[in-house]
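Supplementary notes for students who missed Thursday's class. We covered one full example, reproduced here. Read the sequence, then the structure, then the short commentary at the end.
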Amino acid sequence: MEQFLADLQTIDAGSVMYNEPLAAYTTWKIGGPADVLIIPHTQDQLVAAVRLLHRHGLKWTNLGRGSNMLVSDKGIRGVVIQPGEGFDYARFDGTLAYAGAACSFVKLSVLAGKEGLTGLEFAGGIPGSVGGAVYMNAGALGSDVSRIFKSADIVLETGELVRFGAEDMAFSYRHSCLHERPGIVTGAVFQLEEGDRKAIAQAMAENKQRRLLTQPLQLPSAGSVFRNPPNDYAARLIQEAGLKGLRQGGAEVSTQHANFIVNTGQATAEDVLTLMTTIRSTIRDKYGIELIAEVLVVGER
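Structure (token representation):
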């Protein structure tokens, strides 16, 4: 690591921070420090950083917008990469939407609607980045990324820049090939369709109102904590098991949406993990169903 840090000073990798607390970089507002946080602002900077890491045989953690991630209280050892402002863009060409990895998925859906393009309405309530949405095959309201995905530019862990199509991504429920083959999305292209601006705006407004009524958007969270089991909903099971409102330290199973764990002010990662363990064991014992976490748990325990 010492030689890597020395070599890092000799390349242009973007912004580099040391022992950087990650709570400010996650939507849960939880997380200890990263030994090294690299924020590349261009594709060349990202490639240079990843190639240097590969040359030194070092792994890295991709942070994205931190909307689907629980960072441990001790933080992340090694290097964390977060695509910077140069990856925050969106443009349209006919029915194609081009977006950078750091672009808000919600923002992209709003811009698409203003362009009179339909297909991204489901993304209006997904508080992550385009890169994270592709990585997780994010979805809601009966749709997901795989249904509109055309291609993505990706920096593999070797530093090689590739372009993957839909088949290459091997999408399934909340999953892509990047779970097994590490890489960082730099940008993606989505195939949308022409639609009626008023109808799209109305649908998105209705979806937003539904979220305001059913989700605890006023408190820090990571959205849905568990994946929905086949033919059922995690929130229904958790609520039926009487776990709504269960607290551990500063973390609470939301009284508004049972599949959300909210940070009421001073929650730690251990608080959240304790609630997750309790929920999983309760649902297992009560219904014989094994809930699978949708959020990524990373860092030193």
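Commentary. The chain is about 30% helix and 25% strand. The chain has a mean pLDDT of 96. If anything here is unclear, bring it to office hours.
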